[in-house]
């Protein structure tokens, strides 16, 4: 395992992040405590140190399992990321959302479940579209100054909000967001319209959730296996099948699993990207870990890009028109370095 810097920070994290949304058996699925511990052992023994959870995962059980595990190991080895926003109770209208009151309450509860004095990376989980971004950033900065959080991050939020937030934080001397967590995969490339270019501009690391499309990109549905994704989902339609067939074909060429190909595609997109690999079985983790030894050729990347291409809309597609390139670059488009 190699280590990457998280955003513009000096924090060193493993090149794969372990997603623990499945730690716990609530809702009729997931890994029990013993299996979760075995997955943690396997990840740590492979050099993994970056762990992702949230206050609401498995009704808090995910954080509790991590707390039990980490309290018996070297806390400082792990880079522990959790999230606030979503409700963990329904006692009052401020027990959810992005507001400062819920942030402080949620973090205190997470610290108890995680059995730790500090959280390494705190994400805003989902934008609520009502809380001012300066309220969020000032609250996170206060938690950082108190030593309860080390780094601020954000998830599932419009690009313009994140850009405004990081610009304001730089102006005010507050801690900026170092990571952006969004759904991103060969089946979900719409973040390329605004989110991933914005993250690249601000030097943020993208941490994709569902990089395997909920398991669809492993080829399980092509093989007729059962899963939790409904047949009418966009992860299982004609487009998804066409993309997955190319993934499987390239996996056969390389002698690796389709999941390895799909994960590696996210890692070769020209910006800092650390996919979140979830696992409820040790075998799943073991296969995901093999991704770090995979390299996709230019031709393989092209095939994957072509079959999964999406319209960027305006102005993304407008910028790609030959006439626009000619007018903007005076015929030197192919000779000018691009950022």
Write up this protein.
The chain is 39% helix and 12% strand. By secondary structure, it is α/β, with parallel strands linked by helices. The protein has 2 domains: 300 residues, TIM Barrel (Alpha-Beta Barrel), CATH 3.20.20.100; 31 residues, no CATH class. α2 packs across α3 and α4 packs across α5. The longest helix is centred in the C-terminal third of the chain and has 17 residues.
Write the layout of secondary structure elements.
Blueprint: E1 3-5, E2 12-14, E3 17-19, H1 33-45, E4 50-52, H2 61-70, E5 79-84, H3 100-114, E6 119-124, H4 133-146, E7 149-155, H5 159-172, E8 177-181, H6 195-202, E9 205-206, H7 238-254, H8 258-267, E10 276-278, H9 282-289, H10 298-308, H11 316-319, H12 322-329
Parallel strand pairs: 3-4, 3-10, 4-5, 5-6, 6-7, 7-8, 8-9
Antiparallel strand pairs: 1-2
